[in-house]
C-alpha cells in the first residue's frame, strides 16, 4: 500500500484523495482550516441552508456528472430555472443572448445579439465568419484579445466582460482563453471562425442546461466526499497546516492549495526558478458575497430571471453580479415557503474583481458597507423598489481564495511548475504533484477532472 499526503481540503484535494483512496492508497489529508470544502460551503438564513460559495457546475463536458454518478449522487443532480440571466449595461438591461459561450455569440446576426450590440457592431462581429485566421496553436492569448480581433471590441465590452467579471472576477483582456474555456481556442483554430467554434461547442455539449447543481446545494458534495473518504480509511487532519513537505511520512504528495502556499511548499520558501515576479490575485484580494432574505411579494414574478451580470463599465451599480437564488433553484423556493411562508426570496450579490483598486468595495470592505451597497443596488438590479424594511435576514461571506487568476502569464507559470515537478520526480525523491484552480482554471468542470488526472499520475507506475 502506497501512502499519499494531500495538502489542502478544498474540492481539488478531496477529489484527488477520493480517487487515490478508492484505488487502495493510504491517504492522509491535511487541511489548515477547521472544515473541508474550500469555496464550497453552506450558510443558513432563518433556518434555510444554501450554498455560501460555489453553487453550480458547467455541463459543457460530462466530467462532473460522471464524478457525481460514481459518488452515488446522480439522483440529486438538478437543472436551474430555464429563464436564464440578464446583462446590465450602462444604457440597458437585457436578457442574455440564448446561444453563446462566455458571451461570445454563435450567431452575431441573431435578434437578441443585435438588441445588445446594435446593427453596426453586430455586422462587425459577423465578419468573423469570413476573416482570415491570424492566431496559432503556439500562442496563449487572452480571451479579450481574441474576441476583439475576431468580432470587435464591442462584443468584449457588452457581452464578454459582464460574464468574465461576474464568473471569473477578471478583465477579459487579462484572462487567458485557455483558462476561461480550454476548448474554445482549439475549436476556433479548427473551424477558422470564433462564431463557428461557439456553435460547434454548443452542439457537442450534453443536452440540457449549461449549468447544474445538487438538490440541497453543492455543499452536499463535500459531505458525501468526506463520508466516503472516512469509510475508505483516509485520515483527515483538520486545523493542521503543513509548513514543510519534508516532515511528511509519504511516498507521494499532492499539493492542492492556493498559489502562495504551493510556491512555498515546493520550493522551500524561495521563488521557483523561471517564474514571473507578478503576484497572484489571491494574495491580497478576494470576493465578498452578500446574501439577502427578503419578504417581497413584488418579486414573485422573477423580474430579472435567475439573476444579473453587471458590466464593469456600469457606474450606478457597485455589485458585479446578482443571483436570484430562489428563482434559479426550485428547491430553495420550496424550502423558503415551507419554513417562512410565501413571497420570501433569497438573492446573492457579489462584490470584488481582480482589477479592483484600493478603496473598491469588495473583500476588505466592512459588513455594514457591503450590506448598505447591496440594499442600494437592489432596485436597479431587480427593477423593483425593494426597501431595507423588507429585509428578513442576511449574511456576508468572504472568499480570499475566490480569485485564482487566469492571465496568460499565470497559466504559463502553472505549466512551468508542473514541468519542474515532473523533472524533479525523474531525478530524486518522492513524487510531488499539484492541482487546484490555479493550475486547472476556474470552475468545477475544470478543477474536478484535473484533480482526478493528477491522482492518476500518482497511481501510474
UniProtKB/TrEMBL annotation:
GO terms for biological process: heme biosynthetic process. It catalyses: coproporphyrinogen III + 3 O2 = coproporphyrin III + 3 H2O2. Involved in coproporphyrin-dependent heme b biosynthesis. Catalyzes the oxidation of coproporphyrinogen III to coproporphyrin III. Keywords: Cytoplasm, FAD, Flavoprotein, Heme biosynthesis, Oxidoreductase. The keyword Flavoprotein applies. This is Coproporphyrinogen III oxidase. The keyword Flavoprotein applies. GO terms for molecular function: oxygen-dependent protoporphyrinogen oxidase activity. GO terms for cellular component: cytoplasm. Pathway: Porphyrin-containing compound metabolism; protoheme biosynthesis.
Amino acid at each position: 500500500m502506497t501512502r499519499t499526503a494531500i495538502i489542502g481540503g478544498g474540492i481539488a484535494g478531496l477529489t484527488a484523495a477520493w480517487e487515490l483512496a478508492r484505488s487502495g492508497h493510504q491517504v492522509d489529508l491535511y487541511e489548515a482550516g477547521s472544515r473541508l470544502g474550500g469555496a464550497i460551503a453552506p450558510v443558513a438564513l432563518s433556518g434555510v441552508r444554501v450554498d455560501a460559495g460555489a453553487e453550480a457546475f458547467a455541463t459543457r463536458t460530462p466530467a462532473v456528472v460522471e464524478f457525481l454518478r460514481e459518488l452515488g449522487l446522480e439522483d440529486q443532480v438538478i437543472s436551474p430555472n430555464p429563464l436564464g440571466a440578464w446583462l446590465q449595461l450602462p444604457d440597458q438591461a437585457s436578457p442574455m443572448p440564448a446561444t453563446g459561450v462566455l458571451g461570445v455569440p454563435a450567431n452575431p446576426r441573431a435578434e437578441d445579439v443585435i438588441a445588445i450590440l446594435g446593427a453596426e457592431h453586430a455586422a462587425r462581429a459577423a465578419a468573423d465568419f469570413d476573416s482570415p485566421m491570424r492566431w496559432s496553436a503556439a500562442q496563449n492569448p487572452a480571451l479579450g484579445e481574441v474576441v476583439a480581433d475576431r468580432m470587435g471590441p464591442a462584443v468584449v465590452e457588452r457581452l464578454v466582460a459582464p460574464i468574465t467579471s461576474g464568473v471569473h472576477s477578471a478583465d477579459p483582456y487579462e484572462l487567458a482563453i485557455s483558462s476561461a474555456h480550454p476548448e474554445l481556442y482549439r475549436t476556433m483554430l479548427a473551424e477558422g471562425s470564433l462564431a463557428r467554434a461557439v456553435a460547434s461547442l454548443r452542439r457537442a455539449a450534453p443536452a440540457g442546461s449549461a449549468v447544474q447543481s445538487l438538490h440541497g446545494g453543492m455543499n452536499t458534495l463535500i459531505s458525501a466526499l468526506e463520508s466516503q473518504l472516512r469509510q475508505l480509511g483516509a485520515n483527515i487532519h483538520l486545523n493542521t497546516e503543513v509548513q514543510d513537505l519534508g516532515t511528511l511520512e509519504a511516498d507521494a504528495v499532492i499539493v492542492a492549495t492556493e498559489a502562495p502556499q504551493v510556491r512555498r511548499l515546493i520550493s522551500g520558501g524561495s521563488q521557483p526558478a523561471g517564474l514571473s515576479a507578478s503576484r497572484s490575485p489571491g494574495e491580497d484580494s478576494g470576493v465578498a458575497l452578500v446574501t439577502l432574505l427578503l419578504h417581497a411579494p413584488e418579486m414573485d414574478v422573477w423580474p430579472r430571471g435567475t439573476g444579473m451580470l453587471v458590466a464593469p463599465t456600469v457606474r450606478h451599480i457597485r455589485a458585479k453580479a446578482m443571483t436570484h437564488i430562489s428563482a434559479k433553484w426550485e428547491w430553495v423556493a420550496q424550502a423558503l415557503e415551507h419554513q417562512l411562508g410565501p413571497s420570501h426570496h433569497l438573492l446573492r450579490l457579489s462584490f470584488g474583481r481582480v482589477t479592483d483598486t484600493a478603496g473598491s468595495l469588495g473583500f476588505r470592505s466592512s459588513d455594514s458597507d457591503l450590506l448598505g451597497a447591496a440594499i442600494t443596488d437592489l432596485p436597479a438590479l431587480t427593477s423593483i423598489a425593494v426597501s431595507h424594511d423588507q429585509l428578513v435576514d442576511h449574511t456576508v461571506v468572504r472568499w480570499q481564495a475566490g480569485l485564482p487568476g487566469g492571465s496568460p502569464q499565470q497559466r504559463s507559470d502553472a505549466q512551468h511548475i508542473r514541468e519542474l515537478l515532473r523533472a524533479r520526480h525523474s531525478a530524486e525523491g518522492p513524487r510531488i504533484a499539484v492541482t487546484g484552480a490555479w493550475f486547472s482554471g476556474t470552475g468545477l468542470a475544470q478543477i474536478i477532472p484535473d484533480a482526478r488526472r493528477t491522482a492518476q499520475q500518482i497511481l501510474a507506475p
